[in-house]
Protein: PGF-pre-PGF domain-containing protein
Organism: Halorubrum xinjiangense
Amino acid sequence: MPTTRRTLTLALLLVAAGSLAFATGAAVIDGPADTVADGDLAVQPADGPNGRYAYLNDNDEIAIDVSASNPNIKDPSFEGVNVGSTGTIDDVFTITYTADEYAHVWIEYASENVTFVADGDSIEGEANNVTLAPNETVTIGLALDTRGKAAGTQLGADEFSIEAKIAEPDEMAGTGASTQQTDGGGATTTVTSPNATHRGFVASDVDRGEEVRFRAEGMELDRDDVTLEGIDLEGVRNERVELTAAGSPDPVANGSALTAPTRPRPVGYLALDYDFAPDAVDAMTIRFSADPAHLNETGTDPADVTLYRQTDAGDWEAKPVEVVDEDVVEILGLPEDRVHFRARTTEFSTFAVAAREPRFDVIEATLAPEAIDPGENATVRATVRNGGGAAGERAVTLTADGDPIANETVALAPNETATVAFDATVETAGAYELAVDGTPVGTLLVGDPADDSAGGDEGSSAGADGAGEMDGAGGTDGAGETDESGGTDESGGTDESDAGDGPTEEPGGIDFVELGGLLGAVALAVATLALFRRMPRS
């Protein structure tokens, strides 16, 4: 394909300030298209709100019209572009390359007030071309400067041209590439895109001490949820630098998973390989972005997003991360439907994008008393610590044999501790294993488990502790305890079931000496029982 040129229509009418609100659009669409370069380039309106400013005219040629004459604009109050302002209309139309080779594509347009841009950078002139791989698409927008212009006039010339030429084989060593050169000369950068998770970056003709900016254009670290947007090198001392980037939601090859004392949640990994000495570059800024919907779904505050670098020893160290201000995002022409971040480092390695999260741990728990009667309270005190990197609030739960019986809510900053108290109340006798959020506390004895296992009647007023009924003959029940009622049943008779194996004496056969000894034995047994009931169970 020789150098190909197509002249197209552009109309931008200036109106009084306040008439036009800029919006943002999105992707490529199927459907009719203006074809350029023998059909190898397809030009279409973008699929999004700003795509209405582009349409195919009666000759099936793309027309850009930001005025009331645009047939796509139904709002009768719309007249054109505001005067005395600057702004960007992103994602107006797309150019898709459909041939089997690589092509350099750019736009020719002479105006001080209107600039065609791709990803916020000018695409005007061959020096600012983008290189498209087969079936690759670039989205074009307009940067406007209407300061000093009068309302009612047309902004800029009424025609622009799309130009393209086949890229030479030696220019395209990778499977997909785009080449950019800064305005007024300077370094030439080439970005190759073998696939969605890899990029190759090359900068040549670099002046000593110059800054080099590479655009990664959404290289995936964790699908489209977290993407690499670019890498900037400061103070480059080599005439040529080259590095490759690979992204993955999982640890990269020959790397380890992110581990740190605050236990952050990794969301994506970035591995960098480079051909220059570390001291050949002063610093590097990593620019990445996240889908706001993904942050909301995972409950991640943008302020808690951070970057970790893996050291030569295999440890992970945190790097400060800055959330890019929305005004800066607009000025730089970055996608406004994403949250943008940047982190600066002076060392190169493998990196991990992560989210700081609260991490609550129970570090100590006590129980007092350890034995209670049914319906009484025992107090559990637990010390909780937030060992994570973010503040948080959480419900802490007390369980008995795994069943929740109480909970308290605690809010803690990173490294902060707090003590929470629970009132544990159990109505049924038994031994219960208590725990706070799975951390064992101890065993709580309720009533007398031995009496409970004997199968006594809980409702009897003659029972030793309400957990079982005592016998009525002054003997011992199944637990070996003496009846506090003095050994008689409710009718005043003697219980024959515990009479013993020896002969039974008649009441008249007991003299006062023997009776005194018997009463003394009963009193001692009752005192022993009372003492036993008041001793803590262990």
